[in-house]
Amino acid sequence: MTNHPEEPVASHTATFTILIPFLGAIAALGPLSNDLYVPSLSLVAAGLGVSGASAQLTMSSLLIGFSAGCLIYGPLSDRYGRKPILCFGLALYVIAGVLAALSGSLAELVLARALQGFSASSTMVLSRAIILDRWSGEQASRAISWVSIFTFFTPVVAPVIGGYVAAFDHWPAVFWLQAGAGALCLAVTFAMLPRVHKVHAASVLASMRAYGTILTDRQALGYMLCTGLAFIGVVAFVSNSSFVLIERFGLEPHQYGYCFSFVMLGGSIGAYTNGRYVTRLGISRMLGIGTALLATGGTLAVLTAGTDAGLIPLLISCLVYVFGVGFVFANAVARTMSRFPASAGAASAVFGVNQFLIGGIVAGALSLVREPSPLPLAATMAFAGLACAAVWWGWLARGAPVKA
Prior knowledge:
mainly alpha; Growth Hormone, Chain: A; globular
């Protein structure tokens, strides 16, 4: 057996081959677009002469761009294959990074960030679709967890790097760095990923018609709601924590980078733990544990923010929440996408739209907050965690199989 990333595998058991770090690297462009940029947010506001809250619109436009791109790349990849569509998305990502670096106003930067999100969504959608081309059920959850280790680890490292980039006091530098990362991923994809002549849909229209089937599936809607709610808390932290930790707690950009990395490390640990135990305990048990962690982390965040307990308790609460996301995301995606093996691209696209559209709305709403208080951030995480747990325990858990 060769180690070409997209070649079919005879075994139904997910194994850690070259495919996993390859998919992890390209999927990491999504969080890299955000997390490398976050420490420069205050520099962007100062450089463009806008408020910190207004600068956060560059975060929400990225997420809205992600949502729009998901709708396009999924059906196109079902019809024309994963590699050509992935290469197109990566090339567009490089162009978007250059345009962002050259932006002279907030409006231009918001549009460039939307294009950046639109292009980066190709990596998120297609990395999952490639996994579902090969595995299903708990094995797919295991593989998605392995890839998620990379995507969650990116926010651990990227803010630290971004903090030092921001220390140069030149905000366009972060976008040149992102464009370079995109160019590297494009070169690796072109060289490593063979084009597999496997058509999943007779036409793009046929693939898009699968949206109707997916969106009328009651179980699919439930699992998408679960992941959407879980992602709300992550977006709240990513988009609002810079404002809160730097303005409210007085951290320097590089200090904020370390705090952000500490919290996001929980996602990598959660993904690793899920990948290790999901085949033993089953998807349902792991989802139960994950949603309970979300509810616990969100509740603790509100209590620490409401009682002004300080920075460390708030960060630990957020860490618990993100740790739970590592369980919820992989299992909800794997269980739902395994129901639509002939439309893996479209199913992955629906998940992406749900995830990032909700995130964009939340980021936009939090941009309206003028005071750097941790309470709006904590309240958002608490609502998201408790609602996600309610959806699982009150709806999906009833009748769900213990194992895949």
